Amino acid sequence: MFYEIRTYRLRNGAIPQYLKVVGEEGIEIQKSHLGTLVGYFFSEIGTINEIVHIWAFTSLDDREARRQRLMADPQWQAFLPKIRDLIEVAENKIMKPASFSPGSGAR
Fold first, then answer.
1. Spatial distance between the Cα atoms of 34 and 96, rounded to a whole number of angstroms
2. How do beta strands 2-10 and 87-95 pair?
3. Ranges for the NIPSNAP domain (predicted)?
4. Which residues contact residue 30 at a Cβ distance below 8 angstroms, ignoring those fewer than 6 apart?
5. Structure confidence by residue, pLDDT tens digits, 25-40
6. Phi (first) and psi of residue 56, to 5 degrees
7. Residue 8 belongs to what H/E stretch?
8. How far is Cα 26 from Cα 20, in angstroms, rounded to an integer?
9. DSSP string for residues in 35-87
């Protein structure tokens, strides 16, 4: 299992607007292509104006195929301008769980 951790720093005060548009429209488009949403979070304490969402994939090839389908979806392309200007900095990590970690597939 591989986990994609996407972290966005938003414009000051943009979290409510971002969450509204993603919640009403964007998340369903993403879930229809990306599959397993592990979690979607926003900062309350610490780094402010931060969004983190985590997606699980069976392999890097699985991730690549799913991301390509998402990017090819006309609904997603129409949605992107609604959030693009709210995001100031984007960071993406691919993480693999340790054998003893929940989500590793080990029992």
1. 17
2. antiparallel
3. 3-102
4. 37, 70, 76
5. 999 999 999 989 999 9
6. -105, 140
7. strand 2-10
8. 9
9. -EEEEEEE-SSSSSSEEEEEEEESSHHHHHHHHHHHHH-HHHHHHTHHHHTTE
Query: 2 near 59, Cβ under 8 Å?
Result: yes
Evaluate whether 79 touches 26 at the Cβ level (below 8 Å): yes
Domains of the chain by range and CATH? 2-95 (3.30.70.100)
Amino acid at 85: D
Per-residue pLDDT of 70-98, as tens digits, reads 999 999 999 999 999 999 999 999 999 99
Token pair of 86, please?
A: 């709210």
User: By 3-state DSSP, what share of the chain in percent is helix, strand and coil, each rounded to 5?
Assistant: 40, 30, 30
Q: What's CA 1's distance to the chain center, in Å?
A: 16
Strand order in the sheet with 36-42: 36-42, 50-57, 2-10, 87-95
